[in-house]
Write a structure and sequence with these properties.
heterodimer, A: mainly alpha, MetI-like fold, two-stranded antiparallel ribbon, 10 helices, globular, B: about 290 residues, alpha/beta, D-Maltodextrin-Binding Protein, domain 2, 2 domains, two-stranded parallel sheet, about 25% strand
Chain lengths: ~280, ~290
């Protein structure tokens, strides 16, 4: 009886938490919405001192950085997962998984410093850039950070496909690559999708590492797809400006609105996760 | 199953034992001391850190924690009441002064010059002085190449600082004519002096604004002014008020602070405290 009560209260509290978080974000950013409407979301000028809180540059920076990270990490991660699950002998598989899990556990500021001292000079010298602090740097760093998530979860999904399916394919005389494309990947797809969404969430919310390499300038790249220019992301803006904004000011409200935007995007993403795992 | 449980219980037991032992040993140390929390401008950071270190020698019962964050954060945290002494490398803005009212003393503890710093390569290739108008043109995006200023053909990497930084406040006030002026020519934005120093020293074509104390071989100051009247931010030029981009480095102390805080503030303004200021690379206010 006690246990049941404890379990249900905990469950209720944790589901309430998200309502509380969203409520807090909305309440704190309300003064800004009240005063300026909602048009500032597509504004392209962020000058807190002049009460200009255009969200577009940072919003676009976030989208760009995450897209770049996914473009790099998704193919690599899934390929590594297939290799690990299907081709590697069991002992090596353990070692590879362990290294990935280790990689997932490295604190993000370590990646940030790595990016600052290794990635930036490399980009500067190889691409002859004015500065390595670019969207590309942020994308590359994020790719490294979400790779373990994608790889480990995708591998689980692929390994969860029943052995009988592989044997059936073999007995039908289907070659290995056809089995991969027609049997394994389609069945593992829901799992890979979940992995991708979780990774997207992590990439979007990453702050410190991105802050150190993105350049932090509130300006839309010119032209807008030029990822070799410095930019700003929502998280890096919050990270850079939160400490100095006085509580209750419009600036503070605008920063919390950045947080609200992030939370809403993350929620939108999680609505896209498949509700039912397909039983293999 | 039972075995697992037992194991977990043991781990829990030892964990609890260590924690309580640790608390028992360290707890009294914390309880017996008063802590003075200091935070804000990274320009003032080396002064206050060194002063705190030396002050501790004569006051071993005091704990002083000094952290950065920028002038804006120093002011904001004094307002929130989360720290005892704020560091601000600029005067209070009108709005801040209104909010803090008469409840806070702004006490200058050092003078500093904001140097216009360039990468070593820029300096060695001929750009050793710029007028205020030229610097402003760079930050407004009207001059984008070092060639236009007598240097090599290289794009200028223009480094701006976070809007709340004291260094930027003073720089923008003197060079751009308004402490909150926009800098459309900026390439990237950095935060602390260390971060900016790292960017300038690693680049061959950067310009930025740095507190005098962060200059080194790879990060050179250029003379500011027209022709022969251009001046470097040397001690003499700063003391005589000839170098234009200077400022007071202030600490913010709430009125009615305890004796421990007052004692430390007096120490900072004493001859010994001001000697620290000069050792670290700034100018005395005495």
């Amino acid at each position: 009886m006690m246990l049941r009560w404890w379990l249900s209260t905990s469950a209720l509290l944790s589901s309430l938490m998200i309502v509380l978080v969203l409520g807090f974000l909305l309440q704190s950013s309300w003064p800004l919405i009240q005063q300026q409407g909602i048009a500032f979301i597509i504004g392209d000028e962020w000058y807190p001192f002049e009460s200009l809180y255009g969200m577009l540059p940072a919003l676009m920076g976030t989208v760009w950085a995450v897209t770049l990270a996914l473009l790099i990490a998704l193919p690599c991660g899934v390929a590594a997962a297939i290799f690990c699950a299907e081709l590697l002998p069991a002992q090596l598989r353990g070692a590879m998984r362990f290294s990935m899990e280790l990689m997932a556990g490295v604190p993000s500021v370590v990646y940030g410093l790595l990016g600052m001292w290794v990635l930036l000079p490399l980009l500067e010298s190889q691409l002859e850039l004015l500065t390595g602090r670019t969207l590309l740097a942020a994308g590359l760093l994020l790719a490294l950070m979400i790779l373990p998530t994608i790889m480990v979860l995708s591998e689980d999904a692929i390994r969860a496909v029943r052995q009988s399916q592989r044997e059936a394919a073999k007995s039908l005389g289907i070659g290995w690559d056809a089995t991969l494309w027609r049997v394994l990947l389609p069945q593992a797809w829901p799992g890979i999708r979940v992995a991708t969404l979780l990774a997207t969430g992590r990439a979007m919310g990453e702050t410190v590492a991105v802050m150190l390499v993105v350049g932090s300038i509130d300006r839309i790249p010119d032209p807008f797809y030029n990822f070799l220019q410095p930019a700003q992301t929502l998280t890096s803006r919050i990270g850079r400006e939160m400490a100095e904004a006085s509580i209750g000011s419009l600036h503070w409200a605008a920063l919390l609105f950045c947080g609200l935007l992030l939370a809403l995007i993350a929620m939108g993403l999680s609505f896209m996760t498949p509700r039912k795992r397909i039983a293999a | 199953m039972f075995h697992r449980c037992k194991e977990a219980l043991w781990i829990g037991f030892w964990g609890a034992a260590f924690l309580s032992l640790g608390t028992a040993l360290v707890g009294p140390l914390y309880a017996a001391t008063t802590t003075i929390k200091i935070a804000g401008s990274t320009t003032l950071l080396p002064i206050l850190s060194e002063a705190a270190k030396q002050y501790r020698i004569t006051h071993p019962d005091l704990r002083l924690t000094v952290s950065g964050g920028g002038s804006g954060m120093g002011v904001a945290n004094i307002e929130r009441g989360t720290i005892d002494i704020g560091m601000a490398s600029r005067p209070l803005s009108v709005r801040e002064a209104e909010r803090l009212g008469d409840a806070t003393d702004v006490i200058p503890v050092a003078r500093d010059a904001v140097a216009i710093a360039v990468s070593k390569a820029v300096y060695e290739n001929g750009v050793t002085q710029l007028s205020l108008a030229q610097i402003a043109a760079i930050y407004r995006g009207e001059i984008r190449n070092w060639r236009e200023l007598g240097g090599l053909d290289a794009t200028i990497l223009v480094i701006d600082k976070e809007a709340s930084r004291g260094t930027r406040y003073v720089f923008a006030a003197v060079v751009l004519g308004n402490p909150h002026a926009r800098a459309p020519g900026a390439t990237i934005i950095t935060g602390s002096n260390n971060e900016e120093q790292a960017v300038i020293s690693r680049s061959d074509q950067a310009i930025g604004m740095l507190s005098n104390a962060w200059l080194n071989d790879r990060v050179r100051a250029i003379a500011v002014g027209e022709g022969d009247a251009a001046l470097l931010p040397t001690a003499e030029n700063v003391a005589r008020g000839r170098y234009l981009i200077t400022r007071d480095l202030n600490i913010l102390v709430p009125k009615g602070s305890g004796d421990e805080v007052k004692g430390f503030v007096d120490f900072l303004r004493s001859a010994q405290g001001q000697a620290i200021v000069e050792t670290v690379g700034f100018h005395s206010v005495r």
